[in-house]
Amino acid sequence: MEYRRIKDQDKDVNPATEDLESLRGKAILDGPAPYDKTKWKMKSMVTLALTFLTSSQAILIVWSKRAGRYEYSVTTANFLVEALKCALSLLALGRIWRTEGVTEDNRLSTTVDEVSVYPIPAALYLVKNLLQYYIFAYVDAPGYQILKNLNIISTGVLYRIILKKKLSEIQWAAFILLCAGCTTAQLNPSSDHVLQTPFVGWIMAIIMALLSGFAGVYTEAIIKKRPSRNINVQNFWLYVFGMAFNVVAIIIQDFDAVVNKGFFHGYSLITVLMIINHALSGIAVSMVMKYADNIVKVYSTSVAMLVTAVVSVFLFNFHLSLAFFLGSTVVSVSIYLHSIGKLQR
C-alpha cells in the first residue's frame, strides 16, 4: 500500500515537473537573444567615428586648396592615405600578436585565392578617391555631401544583387525619401537650379556613387565571407593593392612633378590632417563592415552631410535656409523608416 501511494504521488508530480522543464526549455528557445553589450559598443563607436571623420573629410579637402587649386599632388596624397592605413593595420596586428600570439586567423600569410579578390575593390576605390578631389571644382563641401548620397541607391541595389539580402518595401521607400531629404536640404530658394551644379559635376557624382556602392558592397562580401579572419589582415591586403595602384597613378599623372618638385611639394598642415582623416575614415569604414553592415556606412554619410553644412557656415559662409531644416527632418524620418523596415523584413 505504501509503495503504491508513493508511486501514485510520483505520477502526480512528474507531469508538472515535465511541464516546468518544457516551459524552461521553451523560454530558453523562444526568449530574446542575449544582449551583447560589447558588440553594441563597438558598433556605436565605429559608426560615430565614421560620421565625424566623413563630415570633416570634405571640409579638409576644400580647405587644402589654395586659390581654387591643389598645390600638392593628389595622387601622392592618395598613396600616403593607403600607406598610413596599411601601417595602422600592421600596428594593430603587432599588438594582437603580442597578446594572443600568431594564429590561423591573424597571420599575414594566406592563400592566393583569398588575396586575389582584393585588387578589384582596391582599383574601384582608387578611381573613386581621385574623383572626389576633382569634383570640388564644381561643388562646395555641403553640395558634395549631398551628391555623395546618390550612393544610397546604388548601395541598396547592389546589396540585394551581390549579398542576396532582401530589402523591404519600407526600406526602399526610406532610400528614396533619404535622397529627397538630402536634396531638399541643399535647395537654393533664390535659384532655379538645384545645387547649381554643372552637368559635369552630376556625371562625376553618379560615377562616384556607382564606384562607392560597388566597392563597398564587394568589400563587405569579402570581409564577411570569412568572419573569423582578423579585420586587420583583410585591411592589410586591401591597402597593399591600393598602394600598388596609386604608384601606377603617380607614374601616369604626376611623374614629372614628383621628380622635379619632390614627393611632398605643396603640402601643408591642412593637407597632412586631410591625409590622416582619409586614413582613419578607411579604417572606420572597414570596421563598420566587419561589425555592422554597409547600410550603416551610408547613413553615417548622410548624417555627416548635416554636420558638414553646419560647420561650413562658420568656415565657408554657407547659408542655412528653411529648405535645409526641412531636408534634415525628412532625413530623420527616413532613418526611422529604415529601422522599422528591418523589423518587418
UniProtKB/TrEMBL annotation:
One of its GO terms (biological process) is transmembrane transport. GO terms for molecular function: pyrimidine nucleotide-sugar transmembrane transporter activity; transmembrane transporter activity. Its main location: membrane. GO terms for cellular component: Golgi membrane. Keywords: Membrane, Transmembrane, Transmembrane helix. It is a multi-pass membrane protein. It is found in: Membrane. The chain crosses the membrane at residues 45-64, 76-97, 170-187, 199-223, 235-252, 264-286, 298-316, 322-340. It comes from the Eukaryota. It holds the Pfam family Nuc_sug_transp. The keyword NAD does not apply. This is CMP-sialic acid transporter 4.
